[in-house]
Design a protein that fits this description.
Length: 214
């Protein structure tokens, strides 16, 4: 980041997740649209460390790169957490560590379970990198470009973009509905009804139904 921060062709913006699940701020997608409209041909979204239910980045990005490190059992954790399903490419960083090759081999072996008989299927590569030494970065960039070309050639890129835009519109509609629904009157009704729920004189379902009727 420090090496490119003053480059006139690079724009960096840090954005808090603001409590949003998925490892990605809701506003980050809007910012990506603005950068795209401004002519930035490459937009990189770096998320916080995602967990099992925080995989929203895969629905927002054209290519998802999962970055792992050998220590701490990252490879095993990736298999358990569902990251194997969303990763289009995997980068094993700090690959100069003794455990790196074994961790990369674990990921490669797990990815074999995704192999089907589809001749156009993309099998995610595992690229070893050492970020502090700029080792493997060009190889990772080349792998991302191969993935992009594969997606365009097979038509998968068009289908993915349609799903992205569909999810995006649904999200905007749902956010708008929530903002409209939780007006001052309903927030007050919620506050008044919570005491009865806590006292077991009502239930969360009953209170929710009353709010919906209102």
């Amino acid at each position: 980041m420090q090496d490119v921060a003053l480059d006139s062709g690079v724009y960096i913006r840090s954005m808090a997740t603001r409590g949003a699940l998925g490892g990605l701020s809701r506003a980050a997608k809007d910012a990506a649209d603005v950068l795209d409209a401004a002519g930035m041909n490459i937009v990189i979204l770096e998320t916080v460390g995602v967990g099992q239910s925080e995989l929203g980045i895969a629905r927002a990005a054209d290519a998802t790169v999962v970055v792992l490190v050998p220590e701490g059992g990252d490879g095993v954790q990736a298999i358990k957490s569902g990251l194997m399903e969303i990763g289009d490419l995997f980068a094993m960083n700090k690959s100069d560590r003794p455990e790196a090759e074994q961790a990369a081999a674990t990921i490669r072996a797990a990815l074999q379970f995704r192999v089907t008989h589809d001749p156009e299927q993309w099998i995610p590569p595992v690229v070893t990198t050492i970020a502090l030494e700029d080792t493997g970065i060009e190889e990772l960039a080349a792998a991302i470009e191969r993935y992009r070309s594969h997606q365009v050639t097979t038509g998968a890129a068009t289908l993915k973009r349609k799903r992205q835009m569909s999810d995006r519109v649904r999200e905007i509609v749902e956010n708008h509905r929530q903002n409209v629904f939780w007006n001052e009157a309903r927030r007050a009704q919620l506050g008044d009804g919570i005491a009865a729920v806590i006292a077991r004189q009502s239930s969360p379902f009953a209170l929710a139904e009353a709010l919906l009727r209102a």
